[in-house]
Design a protein that fits this description.
This protein starts with a helix and ends with a helix. By secondary structure, the chain is of the alpha/beta class. The strands form four sheets. Strands 1, 2, 15, 16, 17, 18, 19, 20 and 21 form a nine-stranded mixed sheet that branches. Helices cover about 30% and strands about 25% of the residues. Helix 2 crosses helix 8. It is elongated.
Length: about 450
């Protein structure tokens, strides 16, 4: 057993990180050839280590997945009028704006309307579009919602929090374009052939309020305090240019590898380890997607390698899933729970790995709710790993799910998540700076060794 434990190496982990983040795979966006190449690398690795294809002799669960190719970063400018004169300010990629990852192709120029959080919710008696006409206009929209998780109607509000919902709402109100107030690459928004959008850094959005009588932060605070919309015309013209091509024929997949248990009865009980393999892709430039989520994928692969090559006896079976299309709406995990390979009642639990590669301490989200599982991790850490360790109760605040683990949890699976605490490096979330040198191979090594030991305990208890 300990031979396999010591075979788990930070050097191998770093090597796998570099491979998954190679520029040739262009950030592993779901539906693209780059994603499929990454999936094939996982299959080749699983095969070499002695895992079995889990989907009735197949390594893949394949599903259709259209995608949008971004040819270049495009352009964003704002025209400021001064009486009869005007000037235009051009914004810079990637420091000030990102193009829309599923934007239509072309150029639009239109007046700008700030519509707060961009929400229309009759059930909450709230509508950011109620007193403004945005037909033919470009709307400027804040991310998230104006209430926090302690609000009694949080779950109802949370349904409207996604960028997908906000784009659909803008289109339904006749807007021709949109600027999100945040510089964040995000491929989850469905393509619309006549809708162009982009993301602008928060500090740059203040330019839009120059010459108005309003302060953006004051308006946001007023909405949060009163839950009354404050939408208004910004008195400026925005021009957005996008160079894109939409592909309807894309494919995506989950990679599924199995370590079959040795016990004739217990092998029918399954422990699942999952991580999403996809990233945000090429959003005007190459986004490596290292912490999010090559780190989780490498963790799952490394644990699979350690257990498979150690030849340690496992009475229960372990299913390793590299999930596709998490970034485009948790589609790979949704596909699995609606097309389960093993009967859900035979699944002991599912562990999700997402952004598990930057920190000092170990964490098991949901562990406190399942002490019969938690004890194996506590024992492994106390005897062999010796890092600070935390656990939390399982919870679901409602609203839209944000992780693959929540998809499994809402489908009735006992679900936990591997986490790390006390980050030691900057986090470049959905950003061009999410490179392999922003992860910590040493904590990933210990995460994998921790799970290696705990899974042996769980499989054989």
């Amino acid at each position: 057993m300990m031979e396999g434990f010591h075979s788990i190496s930070s050097n191998d982990i770093q090597s796998y990180m570099e491979i998954l983040c190679q520029p040739e795979w262009e950030g592993r966006r779901a539906g693209t050839p780059g994603y499929l190449a990454a999936a094939q690398f996982v299959v080749d690795s699983f095969t070499a280590w002695g895992l079995q294809p889990a989907n009735h002799g197949l390594w893949y669960q394949t599903f259709d997945h259209e995608w949008t190719e971004i040819k270049d970063a495009g352009q964003l400018s704002i025209k400021f009028a001064f009486g009869k004169d005007s000037i235009s300010k051009q914004y810079n990629f990637p420091s000030e704006f990102f193009p829309g990852s599923s934007s239509a192709n072309g150029t639009i120029s239109a007046p700008a309307i700030w519509v707060g959080f961009g929400i229309t919710a009759p059930e909450l008696n709230y509508d950011d579009y109620q007193k403004v006409d945005v037909k033919g206009k470009i709307v400027v929209v804040e991310t998230e919602i104006p209430v926090n998780a302690k609000h009694p109607d949080f779950a109802v509000w949370a349904v409207h929090s996604s960028t997908v919902s906000k784009c659909k709402n803008a289109i339904n109100h006749g807007a021709v374009g949109l600027i999100f107030v945040d510089k964040l690459a995000n491929p989850s928004i469905p393509y619309h052939p006549n809708f162009i959008y982009c993301y602008l850094k928060k500090s740059m959005v203040n330019d839009l309020f120059v010459g108005t009588k309003f302060n953006r932060n004051d308006l946001i605070e007023h909405i949060k305090t009163t839950l009354q919309p404050q939408s208004f015309s910004l008195g400026k013209e925005i021009t957005i240019t996008a160079h894109t091509q939409h592909h309807l024929d894309g494919k995506c997949c989950n990679v599924v590898g199995l370590l079959e248990g040795s016990d004739s009865v217990l092998k029918n009980e399954i422990i699942i380890l999952g991580a999403h393999l996809d990233g945000v892709g090429n959003a005007g430039a190459f986004f490596p997607g290292a912490l999010d989520n090559a780190s989780g994928s490498v963790d799952v692969m490394t644990i699979a390698q350690g257990l498979a090559q150690s030849k340690v006896d496992l009475k229960r079976s372990i299913l390793f899933i590299l999930l596709g299309a998490e970034e485009t709406g948790l589609r790979g995990s949704t596909y699995y729970v609606t097309h389960p390979i093993f009967p859900p009642e035979k699944v002991v639990c599912m562990f999700n790995f997402d952004m598990v590669g930057n920190g000092k301490g170990l964490g098991l989200w949901g562990g406190t709710s399942f002490p019969e599982i938690l004890k194996h991790f506590q024992e492994a850490n106390e005897k062999y790993i010796h890092r600070p360790m935390q656990s939390w109760e399982y919870s679901d605040a409602g609203g839209r799910p944000r992780t693959d683990g929540m998809i499994f949890g809402r489908a009735g699976y006992t679900t936990l998540a591997a986490t790390v605490t006390d980050r030691v490096k900057p986090v470049f979330y959905h950003d061009i700076g999410d490179t392999p040198d922003m992860v910590v191979p040493e904590i990933m090594e210990d995460i994998c060794r921790w799970f290696y030991l705990a899974l042996i305990g769980m499989a054989n208890e």
